[in-house]
């Protein structure tokens, strides 16, 4: 919640939270900032639970690679720990949709795993070891050069990357790096 506030989320804005899960972000924002919030996820029981924590917000069950919102309707779109579980092509499709749904100058803020982050190596090793004995959840690593390329092709401006180990402590708890892109 603090990260999004620092990236410009303010009163009266509309936020779309992709992969909102059980509503951790919604709970943190609810009753602290007057925004229009739409949480989207693929699991109804998680959405039902999120609604109990943030009853004034909207939650949508949606299982397609799209964002079920009108064109030019959102000030900010976020995806925390979502793209880490998707193939690169699927992530790109969501970013295409984000460009459609965002208002001019709107931002997309998302977390990602990267090999160059020392703390992420353990996730890779755990995934590799699990792969030897079962089918583990997908943990997809995205390198910054891929995000820069995607942004360029989508006419998004790269505002900044935030390291998973950001020394300021302002974004602690994410455990992943963050990309902030702005619609031109």
Protein model, in words:
The chain is an alpha/beta fold. It has helices at 2-6, 24-29, 44-53, 88-101, 121-133, 144-153; strands at residues 14-18, 36-41, 58-61, 74-79, 102-112, 156-162, 177-183. A seven-stranded mixed sheet has the order 3-2-1-4-5-7-6, with helices on both faces. The longest helix has 14 residues, at 88-101. The protein starts with a helix and ends with a strand.
Short description:
By secondary structure, the protein is α/β, with parallel strands linked by helices.
Radius of gyration from CA coordinates: 16 Å
Record field, number of beta strands:
7
Percent of residues in β-strands: 25-35%
**Gross geometry:** globular
Task: Give the termini distance in whole angstroms.
Answer: 24 Å
Taking pLDDT < 50 over at least 5 consecutive residues as the criterion, the unreliable ranges are none
Strand neighbour order, sheet with most strands:
3-2-1-4-5-7-6
What share of residues is helical?
25-40%
Average predicted confidence as pLDDT: 94
Major sheet characteristics:
7 strands, mixed
Report the total helices: 6
**Helix-strand pattern:** HEHEHEEHEHHEE
Kindly name the structural category: alpha/beta
